Amino acid sequence: MARIVMKFGGTSVSNTDRIKNVACLVKAEVDLGNEVAVVVSAMSGTTDQLVVWTNAVAQMKGSSREYDVVVASGEQITVGLLALALQNLGVKAKSWLAWQIPFYTDCVHGNARIVRIDTSIIRKDFGEGKVAVVAGFQGIAPNKSITTLGRGGSDTSAVALAVSLEADRCDIYTDVEGVYTTDPHFITKARKIDFVAHEEMLELASQGAKVLHTRAVAVAALHGLPIQVLSSLDKKPGTSIVEEGELVEKQVVTAIAYSTDEAKVTLIGLTDCPGVVGTIFEALADADINVDMIVQSVSQSGNFVDLTFTVSSSNINLVCNVLNVLKKDLGYIDIVYNTMVCKISVVGVGMRSEPGVAKIMFRTLAECGINIQLISTSEIRISVLISSGYLKLALQALHTAYGLDANCKFIKSNN
Amino acid sequence: MARIVMKFGGTSVSNTDRIKNVACLVKAEVDLGNEVAVVVSAMSGTTDQLVVWTNAVAQMKGSSREYDVVVASGEQITVGLLALALQNLGVKAKSWLAWQIPFYTDCVHGNARIVRIDTSIIRKDFGEGKVAVVAGFQGIAPNKSITTLGRGGSDTSAVALAVSLEADRCDIYTDVEGVYTTDPHFITKARKIDFVAHEEMLELASQGAKVLHTRAVAVAALHGLPIQVLSSLDKKPGTSIVEEGELVEKQVVTAIAYSTDEAKVTLIGLTDCPGVVGTIFEALADADINVDMIVQSVSQSGNFVDLTFTVSSSNINLVCNVLNVLKKDLGYIDIVYNTMVCKISVVGVGMRSEPGVAKIMFRTLAECGINIQLISTSEIRISVLISSGYLKLALQALHTAYGLDANCKFIKSNN
User: Fold this and answer.
1) Does the bond joining A102 to the residue before it have cis omega, within 30 degrees of 0?
2) In this structure, is residue A153 part of a structural domain?
3) pLDDT in tens, A46-85
4) How many domains does chain B contain in total?
5) CA-based, 20 to 30 A from A196: which of A33, A127, A209, A306?
6) Domain assignment of residue A259, yes or no
7) End-of-domain residue from the set A118, A142, A175
8) Higher-pLDDT residue of B278, A263
9) Residue B174 marked ligand-binding
10) Closest chain B C-alpha to A142 CA, distance in angstroms
11) Most B CBs within 10 Å: which of A18, A48, A61, A66, as the mutation test of the B interface?
12) For A53, which of B57, B73, B81 is closest by C-beta distance?
């Protein structure tokens, strides 16, 4: 007997037939003698519609208490319907909203963080052979207001619940077969990955792979919780996300992620004295702007430096406003920016022990005639910023160069 | 300054433009210096859709804990959107779900009764100049499950909240201009009524008038709460429901209600001994069947009686099943029933002091050649059961006979 948390996304519960299908998948786990908690999202499209309505009634930016009240309603429908569908199959089941469990969060509406989950009700229901059907995405703040965890937050709900329940694993059902070596909608040679390490998945999710919410992977990594990513619509095995030590073969490069939501900003002719760079990034952080890649280079004149960094392209106007305010204090010569850039990241835990990964990347891109504008690295990742026009060419070439194409194996480290 | 509860039905909040319109109506009351709590229904059509989904995932009859979880979600959307729309107009507003207030009910899912409303949060918000936007239709059971009050239950939510808040009045906004002398969609000469007594409204609602939930009127009558019924879509004055003592002129007949959901059942040749009739109605009550008009008449043979009563036509099969089970014990000869009947009720508090109301009814119907099958009365109501085919003819003739046609006044009692 195992204790598992199953999570179903919006496309898996998009209509009543699919909800009945989900009930069958849950029943199969119950019939194996497992204790099961199920976390569900809203029907696909519902949350989008609710967001449209909130924008229609009020010219507001961002989230608020009332925004969360509206957008949290979609999950209430699906938990009730799934509990009914399970009861109809003879499975004992009960729905739970965040305030009933409760799922305690902080007060940050629209992007709340889970503080603690009281699992006593669900454990009691397990004792009575009941399936707990839990609303994802939502929480309850200390002042009893409804909160939401941000788009994609149901993944985090599921993983956090699995950790709190000391579950054996968390199965994330979605509309794709698992995690791919790169985006299969874009690169036809992409392959499904059987096993991936938590750390690799964390890099992939944070570098643009959309299959899992980054925060969900971070929580799973922190607690060593095994995750399976698999399709609710067919019965193929999916991708297992496991601790690095459990990987039998460590790929040097496991997968390639990309992001097109990038803008490169350069401050030209910045005075080269201590504290200047700190002032800039402090001001950007205060405006809630995430800065990603950062490079400082000495200007031709000698006494000045050029500072280049990347931000989300949707933030570019805000960034320019913040920097313009600082211009008098900082005394830089000019700001230039470019939003026609994209970031490609190759990720693999084998990189730690295998030199030459960067060399392959630079040679491959050079052979394609692609100029690298910025580089950043972690222990298991190399990211480059290139011109958007070369995205597909670069992905295809790198996918081949690192041996990720279907029916092809490349560098492996020893176990 | 007054303290008022405003209630908006599904058609008044059916899209974001209408919700913005409702926000303007609420702001107008706030600008007058009033303390305002608003009760809203789900967008029209939403609850129907949710019920369809519950039926699609499970072959179940009636309501359950999970049914209530699903159908209570519609009000969560409209309270959040209305609070946002009010904030957008510069009005301080906060949404409240039943569990947050709380709105305590019993455990009867799908048809719960309000036990107590804790108004402390709303009174505190009034003190801070805030409008409380409250989800109608829903409640919370002692075991913290979500309950619903039955279709049309938002009227009851609003009236119960108004009583608990010791409000000066409750304004029920709907898609018609008020309460009419009879159904204006059916009888073109129907007129809007300016004033109606609680007791009259209670008789009208329970005899088929659909403008207000019967339980809402009963609660208002019990506590002497003034109600206004008016349109959210135009600015005409509506109908005031007040205590009988406040009526300046008491109509002998204020309005005529009708119901087509009627079936007449006759048990022929029932043994005439004590306890038999009690056994029958006890069995029907145990099967949750409401019996309305009842007549017992001596059979031609002398030792037997015929028992006739009416039930909702949707219950007719269930009634026959219950009676068939009893046949051996009761020894009646036959059951006959007829669903091609309708009930017409004339209502007016002036009836108490004015004889001759029944005479007009019987004469008018006789002149139309309409046979009366059953009669029942209260102090302020006369109801007759007639063949369905004569419904419109009877309504038109009675509307004229009692002086209810537009631009026409008939019998008035002294003040």
Assistant:
1) yes
2) yes
3) 988 999 999 999 886 667 999 999 999 999 999 999 999 9
4) 2
5) A33
6) no
7) A175
8) A263
9) yes
10) 13
11) A66
12) B81
**Cβ-based neighbour number of residue B62 at 10 Å:** 9
Q: Residues B85-101: what's their mean pLDDT? A: 96
CATH of the domain at B15: 3.40.1160.10
Alpha-carbon distance values, A313 to A182, A317, A345 (Å)? 22, 9, 18
How near does any CA of chain B get to the CA of A194, in Å?
34
Question: How many angstroms away from the CA of B234 is the closest CA of chain A?
Answer: 20
| pTM, two decimal places | 0.87
Mean pLDDT score of chain B, rounded to an integer?
91
The answer, yes or no, to whether ipTM is higher than 0.90 is no
**Is-contact B88 A112, C-beta < 8 A?**
no
Of B299, B314, B335, the residue that ends a domain is: B335
Alpha-carbon span B230 to B194, nearest angstrom:
11
A57 contacts B20? CB cut-off 8 A: yes
- Domain of residue A41 covers 3-175
What is the per-residue pLDDT for B410? 47
Whether B144 contacts chain A with CB within 8 A? yes
Taking the C-alpha atoms of residue B410 and residue B398, their distance in angstroms, rounded to an integer, is 12
| Shared-domain flag, residues B165 and B278 | no
CA B147 – CA B111 distance, rounded (Å): 8
Q: Is residue A107 part of a domain?
A: yes
* Residues A144 and A15 placed together within one structural domain of the fold: yes
Six-digit token pair at A308?
Answer: 């280049």
Contact in structure between A27 and A86 (CB atoms under 8 Å): yes
The DSSP 8-state label assigned to residue B290 in this structure reads: P
